[in-house]
Design goal:
Blueprint (H helix, E strand, L loop, with lengths): L5 E6 L2 E5 L1 H21 L5 H32 L4 E7 L2 E6 L6 H9 L6 H6 L7 H4 L7
The structure holds zinc ion.
């Protein structure tokens, strides 16, 4: 990850990037949601279903970025640098520059989840919340 990452935005000075594999997931999600909304929005045009599917997929990824941003901002507040937030095939990842030095800091970083109100969190498939786990194994940048 990281190689071939495309910058999507920069929030609070943190680079938000996406690996090429994320675009595959984005395409599949829009394709899937188009079918769902085509059925749910019976009587509307296919264009409407497609636009709603695109909006739904983008909101999902906005939620994911906000979630990772929660980890990143708490890490930064505890003196740990954040090199970037990456979206990839299995979800999102806040890349930290070093490991937390105490269990308390580790807990606070892991517990920070800005973008996941209860309902949205329940809709995330397993594996999308890889940030707090994988970040511990990210080499310093
Ligand atoms: Zn998380």
């Amino acid at each position: 990850m990281g190689t071939g990452s495309i910058q999507l935005a920069r929030l609070f000075g943190i680079r938000i990037g996406a690996s090429p594999s994320w675009f595959v997931v984005l395409f599949l999600m829009i394709y899937y949601l188009s079918g769902v909304f085509d059925t749910a929005l019976e009587g509307y045009s296919n264009d409407t279903s497609y636009v709603v599917a695109v909006i739904g997929a983008l909101l999902f990824f906005v939620s994911l970025v906000l979630h990772e941003l929660g980890h990143a901002l708490v890490a930064r507040r505890n003196g740990i640098g954040v090199s970037s937030i990456e979206l990839w095939f299995f979800g999102g990842l806040a890349k930290l520059t070093r490991d937390p030095t105490t269990p308390g800091v580790d807990f606070r970083i892991s517990a920070a989840r800005l973008g996941h109100p209860g309902l949205a969190y329940g809709t995330l498939p397993a594996g999308t919340d890889t940030g707090a786990i994988v970040a511990r194994h990210t080499p310093p940048v």
